[in-house]
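Quick one: structure for this chain?
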Amino acid sequence: MRFDKSEQTGYIYSNSNPCIMKSGYFLPIVLLSVVSFLPACEYDKVNTSVQYYTPEEFQVLSEKLNLPSTPFDYNGFNFEPNIVDGTGTLGRVLFYDTNLSSDNSVSCGSCHQQQLGFADNVPFSKGIMNRSTARNSIALAAFRSFGSYSGDPRTTLFWDGRVNNLHDQMIQTIRNPNEMGMEMNEVVERIKDLDYYQILAQKSFGQNEINTGIVLAALENFMNSINSTTTRFDNISTQNGFFLTSSPWQGFTETENIGKSIFVKNCVSCHNQGLGNISTNLNVDDNLRTANNGLDLVYDDKGEGELNPAPQALAIFKIPGMRNIELTAPYMHDGRFGTLEEVVDFYSDGIQDHQNLHLFLKENGHAKKFNFTSSEKSALIEFLKTLTDHTIAQEEKWSDPFL
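Got it. Here's what it folds into:
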């Protein structure tokens, strides 16, 4: 409440409305009147809180959606500057909406489940009409898009590396006949008249008319906001100057430090994205995004070779990120390994001598045998578990708003 003394009348004002007291009586009774004065002017208080939605808008939204009255912050890990938080909210709703599939059976969240680190727990996910996807669902939050229409050429968003930005990835996923089976104009036609989308579009983009650009931009902003940084690895790396190669790290157990050393020596050459600073004297290719890892001598799935007839493209696949690896089983493009133990066993002595096997997995011109001991395997897995973000599986702003 603001107290002003009028030079002409001597009245006391709260904001623009006066509670009148004659100036002649003011000084003698000020201490006695202040207690009674405040309740008398209670009605003059101005409500300064800002409501994002009107009561009518929030009532409409609440009939279908479980949303907060003020949007969550979706800016933290977006590469696009100044993202409107409401845009992330719109993207969240779209991400979990089965209206984006032709038979209304699946959403983006069906194959990228929050509690599983935005992956799936089966080798091949189920799309429309109970059809199986061709490859294992890749976990989100490991790699992000670098712009709606112009991606970083190093970024790969499918197992075969065919796109480098979320804009193209989303169009292809929604269109895929085994996944969602919809053209973007069909998606727009289906949702444009839904009242909650009109409200969310108005809040995000200043217009209540849904179009393809709005759908894709909102989805991208939501997906780019998903991140995994609340991990034991991140907390301890901060304390140790972020350098992965400095050893041992204070705060890690002896086993975790042994596992970290094994990872640095044998794994970081390929799996180095998003893991902090890495010493330049290591054999690391920062631009490496795809490779052959010797799963087979002959592949049913040709990877990049499905799109590129060049011999060097045969059986080349995306290198997945390591964050939340504990949550995202099964592993590999075909989900053949159900546990981390199976993965480590494979790299220990199961790598096949494929013609395109990456040189990091070769020794003397042939498939390398790492021959990890049982204790080394256990230590490596313990280190990998430090990359688990337990908050990502529970964070409300990334959860299904239809529940």
